[in-house]
């Protein structure tokens, strides 16, 4: 019991230190963390670990650090007792599970910056426990909320980013990922020497950027590999695909395919390229050239590795429905193997919409009957064709209007014109909302750019660091193959399930 | 904010209250964890774990909350997250799936038939009625920009009104459209829709635009 009393005293001291200067608070937190790590390593709490009421003596918010370490001690004790990584006592909806979830919603984000490793382990164990009971949805909110609590900007890429998108895909809870996915990832955790070489920063101080406290040594992220970053953007793209946000999906997949690589392109990149083609067709009805960041030889390599997809895109863009259907049929095994059958089906369904959009280039107005004659894909009754066109217009995909005649026997006129666009007020408010969103994004990007500029300008070691980063990336590239395949196994199962 | 415990009363209360759609969605979203845990627990062999009545009401209400916030793809994802046995056997969830299909295929007339004709549980009725009204308003706004001229029967079909009565130029039906600013040409027997302006509650902020433009200007230097 002496140990517990000691913890209570330490926690009380920490509460008082919060009102002192940043230096004093920093020192107090460091001492507390060191002491707690010592207690855990010596297993001094082993006797109390299984005592659920132990945590009742502490407040998860005010005593965040102590609470975190006590949770760790309890988990460790149960793990040792059961010899399982996720012991039964930890599974939802158990008492310990509830305590962890409550903690992840309420912890003090400043104190936790000093115990990043323990915080991450807690987040990871929540994800594992939810998956053990085949309910990944249970971990989605706690993980996401914990991430946003620790770093509301989510601008520094961490292993938890990848964990969250995986959970959301597995749980089919796509919108839950958006508060993180919609933010820009601008940095990787840097080595502590970069951040503190000339101007030591205290994690507990107020920071313009989370890059100051999410470092390689903070433990907030596990060690990252090149592949993790690619997978995050591939899986993120898949989430946007599931939500039919084709523009954002194309952007995320575009990040993967334009990733600089010294060696050969990886399977993840090829996978992303295949999806990127389909997503671009769904977004615009055509496949524009990929980013000019991709060297021409890499672009050629992509095209040769994704030949059936390129052929499919050509048929689509030529407006040749018969050929398109033939390509879809011929490549059925390929789409199924790649788990892209759902997307290919959507491409086929979107053909009519893009045909109508294409007819706009030739005609200013025509009757629905004439349109059906022009577009071989509209093999329906006039009434059904009109209804389909109306739904394209209502969804905002086609800018046109319909003019019916008083007689039901006269074919309705379709006018491609912007004259009857939404009222001015609506346009202005939309533009304003769009500008406000862009303003926020721009603000976040400017801050990150400033941060990068700051490091580049002040740190002499920056270039050395970049060189080390190159070696790191190259070393990982060299391992492309088995490792990549192993990583994709899980994802590919998920890809097929995307509607 | 701590929510009241997950119970039939609480979900019924939420379904009956007129919360703004986004608020309703957020509250129900927080209960999904409870529902998921409950469904994994012990229960009857037929319906899976937990209280089937509560789970059915929760998932149906949450489904409608998705529709009220115009999240159709995510509503579809929700149907895949529902406990499988319950989804296959519960009449209310089956109705939700039928409704989803009609919405996915933009079958307006069918949507009204499903909302009005299928047997929805009493406690879900407020949300069903609310969505019907929402869908009608939303469709009215959409066709007001889609059509320059429209026959009353077509317009009535989109809004779930009787097409035959509308075809005969029934004044009560025509009045419904003209009250929204549409004009009625009795000679041609055509309605001329006028785009409906939906004002947002957000106040215009010219400062925001100014700041953005300034930022764009600075970043180019």
Automatic annotation (TrEMBL), chain A:
The UniProt keyword set, sorted, is: Cytoplasm
Q: Which GO terms describe its cellular component?
A: COP9 signalosome
Q: Which GO biological process entries does UniProt record here?
A: ubiquitin-dependent protein catabolic process
Superkingdom: Eukaryota
**For this UniProt entry, which residues form the secretion signal?**
none
Record domain COP9 signalosome complex subunit 3 N-terminal helical repeats: where: 52-291
Decide whether keyword Oxidoreductase is in the record.
no
Q: Which InterPro entries match?
A: COP9_N, CSN3
Entry protein name:
COP9 signalosome complex subunit 3
From TrEMBL, chain B:
Q: Where in the cell is it found?
A: Cytoplasm; Nucleus
The CSN8/PSMD8/EIF3K domain extends over: 55-195
Q: Which GO terms of type biological process are on file? A: COP9 signalosome assembly; protein deneddylation
- Establish whether keyword Nucleus is in the entry: yes
UniProt-listed InterPro entries: COP9_CSN8 (IPR033205), CSN8_PSD8_EIF3K (IPR033464)
Supply the alphabetized keyword list: Cytoplasm, Nucleus, Signalosome
The Gene Ontology CC terms held by the record are: COP9 signalosome; cytoplasm
Q: Which PANTHER family match?
A: COP9 SIGNALOSOME COMPLEX SUBUNIT 8 (PTHR13339:SF0)
Protein name as catalogued? COP9 signalosomesubunit CSN8
């Amino acid at each position: 019991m002496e140990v517990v009393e000691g913890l209570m005293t330490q926690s009380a001291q920490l509460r008082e230190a919060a009102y002192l200067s940043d230096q004093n608070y920093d020192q107090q937190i460091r001492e507390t963390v060191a002491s707690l790590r010592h207690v855990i390593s010596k297993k001094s709490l082993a006797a109390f670990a299984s005592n659920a009421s132990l945590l009742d003596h502490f407040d998860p918010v005010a005593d965040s650090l102590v609470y975190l370490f006590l949770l760790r001690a309890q988990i460790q004790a149960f793990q040792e007792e059961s010899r399982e990584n996720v012991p039964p006592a930890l599974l939802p909806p158990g008492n310990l599970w509830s305590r962890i979830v409550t903690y992840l919603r309420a912890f003090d984000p400043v104190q936790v910056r000093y115990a990043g490793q323990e915080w991450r382990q807690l987040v990871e164990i929540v994800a594992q426990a939810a998956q053990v009971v085949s309910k990944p949805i249970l971990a989605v909110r706690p993980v996401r909320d914990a991430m946003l609590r620790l770093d509301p900007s989510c601008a520094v890429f961490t292993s938890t980013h990848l964990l969250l998108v995986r959970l959301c895909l597995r749980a089919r809870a796509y919108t839950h990922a958006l508060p993180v996915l919609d933010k820009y990832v601008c940095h990787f955790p840097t080595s502590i020497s970069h951040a503190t070489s000339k101007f030591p920063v205290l994690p507990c101080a107020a920071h313009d950027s989370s890059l100051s406290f999410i470092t390689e040594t903070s433990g907030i992220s596990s060690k990252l590999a090149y592949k993790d970053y690619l997978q995050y953007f591939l899986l993120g793209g898949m989430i946007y695909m599931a939500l039919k946000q084709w523009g954002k999906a194309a952007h995320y997949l575009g990040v993967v395919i334009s990733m600089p690589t010294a060696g050969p392109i990886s399977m993840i990149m090829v996978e992303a390229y295949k999806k990127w083609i389909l997503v671009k067709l769904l977004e615009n009805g055509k496949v524009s050239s990929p980013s000019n960041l991709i060297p021409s030889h890499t672009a050629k390599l992509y095209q040769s590795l994704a030949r059936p997809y390129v052929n499919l895109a050509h048929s689509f863009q030529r407006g040749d429905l018969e050929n398109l259907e033939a390509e879809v049929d011929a490549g059925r095994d390929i789409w199924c193997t790649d788990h892209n059958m759902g997307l290919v089906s959507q491409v086929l369904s979107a053909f009519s919409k893009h045909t109508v959009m294409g007819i706009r280039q030739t005609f200013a107005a025509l009757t629905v009957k004439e349109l059906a004659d022009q577009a071989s894909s509209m093999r329906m009754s006039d009434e059904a064709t009109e209804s389909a066109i109306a739904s394209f217009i209502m969804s905002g995909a086609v800018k046109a209007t319909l003019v019916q005649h008083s007689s039901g026997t006269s074919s309705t006129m379709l006018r491609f014109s912007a004259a009857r666009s939404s009222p001015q007020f609506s346009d202005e408010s939309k533009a304003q909302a769009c500008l406000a969103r862009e303003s926020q994004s721009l603000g976040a990007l400017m801050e990150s750019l400033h941060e990068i500029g700051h490091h580049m300008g002040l740190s002499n070691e920056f270039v050395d660091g970049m060189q080390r980063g190159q070696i790191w990336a190259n070393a990982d590239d060299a391992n492309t193959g088995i490792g990549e395949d192993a990583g994709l196994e899980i994802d590919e199962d998920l890809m097929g399930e995307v509607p | 904010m701590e929510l009241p415990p997950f119970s039939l009363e609480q979900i019924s209360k939420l379904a009956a209250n007129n919360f703004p759609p986004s608020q309703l969605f957020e509250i129900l979203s927080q209960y999904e964890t409870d529902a998921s845990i409950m469904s994994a627990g012990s229960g009857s062999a037929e319906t899976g774990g937990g209280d089937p009545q509560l789970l059915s009401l929760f998932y149906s209400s949450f489904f409608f909350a998705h529709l009220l916030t115009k999240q159709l793809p995510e509503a579809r994802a929700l149907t895949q997250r529902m406990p499988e046995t319950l989804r296959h056997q519960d009449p209310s969830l089956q109705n939700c799936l039928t409704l989803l299909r009609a919405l996915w295929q933009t079958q307006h007339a069918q949507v009204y038939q499903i909302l009005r004709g299928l047997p929805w549980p009493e406690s879900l009725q407020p949300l069903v009625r609310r969505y019907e009204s929402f869908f009608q308003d939303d469709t009215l706004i959409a066709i007001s920009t889609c059509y320059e001229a429209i026959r009353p029967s077509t317009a009535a079909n989109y809004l779930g009104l009787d097409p035959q009565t509308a075809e005969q130029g029934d004044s009560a039906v025509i009045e419904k459209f003209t009250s929204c600013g549409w004009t009625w040409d009795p000679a041609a027997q055509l309605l001329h829709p006028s785009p409906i302006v939906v004002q947002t509650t957000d106040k215009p902020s010219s400062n925001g635009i100014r700041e953005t433009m300034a930022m764009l200007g600075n970043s180019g230097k």
